[in-house]
Amino acid sequence: EADIYQTPRYLVIGTGKKITLECSQTMGHDKMYWYQQDPGMELHLIHYSYGVNSTEKGDLSSESTVSRIRTEHFPLTLESARPSHTSQYLCAISSSSGNTIYFGEGSWLTVV
Amino acid sequence: QKEVEQDPGPLSVPEGAIVSLNCTYSNSAFQYFMWYRQYSRKGPELLMYTYSSGNKEDGRFTAQVDKSSKYISLFIRDSQPSDSATYLCAMSRTGGGNKLTFGTGTQLKVEL
């Protein structure tokens, strides 16, 4: 079982606000990911990182940005939230040598 | 056409039944196959991980991969109400950096 922590779990925020979703892990794994999941839909990769100062965009285009200044943290930021950003955001980790990916509990974002 | 197809259900079975969940895929480069269980408002939990073709058993769960048919299955024996959740298949390819492609998930309900 992996120790991945996401905050906040639930957030309701107004249009135009800046938000940061936090993701932290205690496993020391190099690889971290952000997936987006709309209700009843499949998960889509929006960002990933293979280590400090390494970030890449995923398969699904997203207006969010990420940073990886420390191994343990991989925050996701939306500079100006819009209702179209309403979704569940899931952070995940995997080790460099492994092929299994473990997810956090998710952050549910609602933009009104 | 989606790379991974999964019947969304819902699938309703009586307690004690054997459940069969399936996914088909089109990308022959997929080598790693996973099944996740996701409860409502929670992150996906890794259930089974299989590399290439073959079977893998863990308690009441059995995962099967048939690469020749591009078809994977998850069997749940002696299903329990606590098994009620959405089951997601996911897969990745060698050299893909552990980036997963997911099915939409099958919603399972095990009734007393």
Could you report the average pLDDT of chain B, rounded to the nearest whole number? 93
Note the overall shape of chain B: globular
Major sheet characteristics of chain B? 6 strands, mixed
Q: What's the SSE pattern of chain B?
A: EEEEEEEEEEE
Oligomer: heterodimer
Rg of chain B to the nearest angstrom? 13 Å
Number of helices of chain A: 0
Outline:
By secondary structure, chain A is mostly beta strands. Chain A is built from no helices and eleven strands.
Structure description:
The complex is a heterodimer of chains A (112) and B (112). Chain A contains no helices and eleven strands. The termini of chain A are far apart. Chain A has 112 residues and is mainly β. Chain B has 112 residues and is an all-beta fold. Chain B is built from no helices and eleven strands. In chain B, strands 2, 4, 5, 9, 10 and 11 form a six-stranded mixed β-sheet that branches. A five-stranded antiparallel β-sheet of chain B has the order 1-3-8-7-6, with no helix packed on it. In chain B, β7 and β8 form a beta hairpin. Chain B is globular and about 45 Å long. At the A-B interface, β5 and β10 of A face β4, β5 and β9 of B.
Features:
A: 112 residues, mainly beta, 11 strands, 48% strand, B: 112 residues, five-stranded antiparallel β-sheet
Question: How do the helices and strands line up, and which of them pair or pack?
Answer:
The complex is a heterodimer of chains A (112) and B (112).
Chain A (H helix, E strand, L loop, with lengths): L3 E4 L2 E4 L5 E7 L5 E7 L6 E8 L2 E4 L7 E2 L9 E3 L8 E8 L7 E2 L3 E5 L1
Parallel strand pairs in A: 2-11
Antiparallel strand pairs in A: 1-3, 3-8, 4-5, 4-9, 5-6, 7-8, 9-10, 9-11
Chain B lengths: L3 E3 L4 E4 L4 E7 L4 E9 L6 E7 L2 E5 L2 E6 L4 E6 L8 E9 L7 E2 L3 E6 L1
Parallel strand pairs in B: 2-11
Antiparallel strand pairs in B: 1-3, 3-8, 4-5, 4-9, 6-7, 7-8, 9-10, 9-11
